[in-house]
Structures are given as structure tokens and as C-alpha cells.
Specification:
With 536 residues, the chain is α+β, with helices and mostly antiparallel strands. The chain has 16 helices and 17 strands. A five-stranded mixed β-sheet has the order 13-12-14-11-15. It has a four-stranded mixed β-sheet with strand order 1-10-9-8, covered by helices on one side. A four-stranded antiparallel β-sheet has the order 4-5-7-6, covered by helices on one side. Helix 8 runs antiparallel to helix 11 and helix 15 runs antiparallel to helix 16. The longest helix is centred in the first third of the chain and has 20 residues.
Amino acid sequence: MLKARQVAPLLLSLLLVSLPVISATPAMAQKQGGTLRLYQLDNPPSASLHEESTITAVTPFSGIYNNLVMFDPFKPHESLDTIVPDLAESWTWDANRTRLTFKLHQGVTWHDGKAFTAKDVQCTWRMLIGKSDNADFRRNPRRVWWSRVEDVTTNGDFEATFELNQPQPSLLVLLASSFSPVYPCHVAQNVMRTRPVGTGPFKLAEIKRGDSIRLTRNPHYFKKGKPYLDEITFKIVESQATRLLAFQTGEFDITFPSDVHVPLFKDLQARTPSAVCKMTTTGTLTTLLVNRLNPPFDRVAIRDAVSLAIDRNAMNTILLEGKGLIGGAMLPKPAGEWGMPKSMLESLPGYGPDSAKNVADARELMKQAGFNERNPLKMKIQTRNLATYRNPAVLMIDQLKKIFIEAELEVLDSTQWYARLTRKDYTLALNGMGVAVDDPDGNIVENYACGSDRNYTQYCDANVDKLLAEQSREPDREKRKKIVWEIEQYLVKDTARPVIQFSVAGNCWHNYVKNYVPHDNSQYNYTRFEDVWLDK
């Protein structure tokens, strides 16, 4: 199989050969106009992407904003090598790699007509790092991303410099995430939540809670000729069956990212043979949250027993027909950039092929802790009221029965679920977790560093924090990988947050939708739609 880096030159050579044909074919030219119709799974919490963590916020609202840099929308695999300019024309590092300077586009305006300047970049990141006098974020879930940023300074209206307290090679990757837009200095955060102002290709026209969201074309967008669409509409449809049926009948143009679960994929393809459907990894993973502060999970033996009891291969077979990926904290190969080699992974507790031995070892640990058939551990497992959460939770309960744990499922709606996680009000919880960018600073640091807002288990280990800082500043990619693998092994052995599997899902769109390219290592960074056009 050709790798992405081998395919790219081949595609380029084919493109160059066919350029005269393409340029001479009017049917291939982008068409202006039309409305792109999509659906939403639920109401987004708000339109302020810096305050949110869910794809239900990113998908409808990322088209309102711009970043300094972005991942190339036409390259399905995201990495440092696929980052392209956005509001920044160019960027340079100083010799010590602690100052990253951006030259900014001139003539860019916000949707309300005010000029975009370097002050807006400075304001945004001073709020994120807690150095702004007027910051009023309700939440700052990725605060830890910017822990190396000491300040952002400006040189005139079109140059901004990020000043770091240590080198951070991945800073550009974090800046390319859809969760990292530039905000306007002159608009208060309470306004950004419901009436956001951006520089992006689309402007917010209206939000009808529980019903729909509508975006309209920004006629003053600084990227000339874009966007091609006149409007984008998002209809909120909570029933998956209703959503997919509406796609089949042509009511919607694209399915929501990762909404076509593996068991539904072939059926949807068969019912809409003219649609384009692709199965991709999503960058989301299913994890078991273990609150190590709550008895009896404050005991190492109980945590280890639970970790050993997880039959990942069985879960993958039942839930994803074996198409999911098994890994540690980082997305594994072939989709991931940083995951451990398979041989290293299978040497870790709970990951080996002998599941019967794992269960036997777990039963022995539970017996030593005082639990057995006559005296089982009774408890509740919480999860969110979505099929992608409930189904693995039910399987998890069945697996735990084998090691004398009798668990009852407690299903919570989204509001209750996130409130519980934030308060750390659970003992065991089955969580689906999205990874915004495939980079250790955007995943392991966010989820395992002491004090991180999204470290829902309150896991805190001085050795892990030391290694996290070490990998973050390491400029040599191969050396950095080895540090990351060391962290992954440590987290598995310490039962920090057992990872069950990385998901795959289908994404479908009707064949008249052009220039829509889902990415294969994150579902969060390709829904700005500024390059999408409709051939109809």
C-alpha cells in the first residue's frame, strides 16, 4: 500500500500532466452560489470555540472564524507538514526557538467592518493565558495548550510575536486547530457566545435554539473569490435514524462527521449508491475514567484489576466490526503520528492477546482485595445518553462481572454528564473523548497533566509532568516520539485512564458536493467549508 508521502508526489505529477485538460473544461470550474444543507446532533453549547470542546460547536461555527494558520483542507492527513497560512502570511522562529513571529495579512476586516490587526491576536492569547484585564471566559478548556506562552507582543498593526518560556515545536499544530481562532478585541465574550463576530468566510445569520443555525456568505472575505457557497444551514435532528433517512432522500448534502457508525455504513452506501462514502479514523477514543480519589479505586490493586478485565479486541469486534484501532494514549498507526509500535503496546498489562490470563490475574487481585462471588463490589458506571457511549458501557459492565464487580449503568443527559465530569462526581465513567489535534501537546498534556481543565480524573504524577515538559520542548522528532512512548507505557501501567479503542466512522456526501475532504486523524479541523462548492 502506498503511504501518504508516496501518494502526494504521484498525485502532483498526475495533476501537472492533466492541467491543460482541467483548465479547458468549464464543468470543472468552481460554481458560485447555492446552499449547503447539513444536520446537527444537538444544540451547540455556544458559538465561542475557545470556551467549548465539542464537535457540535466546531462544525457549525468554524466557518465564522479564521486562525493564524490552518491545516491544508485538501490534505486528509494533518501534521506539522500540512500547515498553511490563514490570517498569517508567513512565520519565522528565532534562533532559540522561543519567539514565533507572524506577518499578518493586511486589509482583513471583521464581519462588523472593523479592521483586523495584530492587537486582536494579542488580545486573544492574553485572554487564554490569563494576562488580560477584561477576560471573561466562562471556561478555558485548553488553557494548558498555552502554558509555554509567556506573552504575545506586537510590532505595528501586522506583526505579532509569541514569546515562549521554553521551545515548543508543536505550537504551530495547536494554532492550526479549529479550536484556536483569532477573536476580535472589540467584542465582549458574552456576545461571542451567541452573536459571534469573525473574519471568516461565513457570517452568522441566525440561531434558533433546538431548531437550526444559518450562515451566510461573507462578501468581504479576504481570500478573493471565496467562499463559493451563498449559505450553509444546519438543522438540529436528534434521532440518528431520522438524520440518515433525510440524507438518503436528499434533504441533507453531507452527513455529520462520524455519525455513520460502522454497522450502518454498508447499508447507507447501498441505499445511496450515488453518494461518496469514506470510512476514516476520527481521532476520538473510548476511555474508562477511574476516579482514584473515590474508594475502593484509591487502591492500586482494584484499578489494576479493572484495567486487566477490559477485553479491547472483543469490544472492537462487537462495536466496530474489528475496524477500530487499539492503542495507548496516542492515536496508533497507521492513522496516528505518535502512537507506540504494536510490539511495545502488546507487552503492556491488559493489551496482550491472552485475555483469559488477563481476567484470571484480575480475579486474583480482586480476591486479595476482599471481593469474590459471594461478596461482589457493587457500584454504578455513569455515561452520556448517546449510543456511542451507552453501547461500550453495557459491554464494559458485562466484562466487569467476570472479576466480581456488579455495576449498574447510570445514563445522563449531556448537561448532567459534563457537570458531573467537571465536579469529578463519579467513581467509574465510560467516556468518549475527542482529540482536536494529533500531537502529544494537544492530547496527553491536555488529558493527563496536573491541573489541566480537561483532566477529568484528576490524575497528577510528577514523573509524567516532567516527561510531558521534556517531550514538548524536544526539537528532534524521533527523540520526542521515544519520550512520548515512555509516557504512554507509564500511563498504562499506572491505570491512569484506560483507553479501550480509537473509533472509526463513515462520512458520506452527495456527489455534487465538491472539495469536501474529511481528515483521517481528527474530525475537528475540516468543516470551515470555504472551498466547498455545489455542482448542481
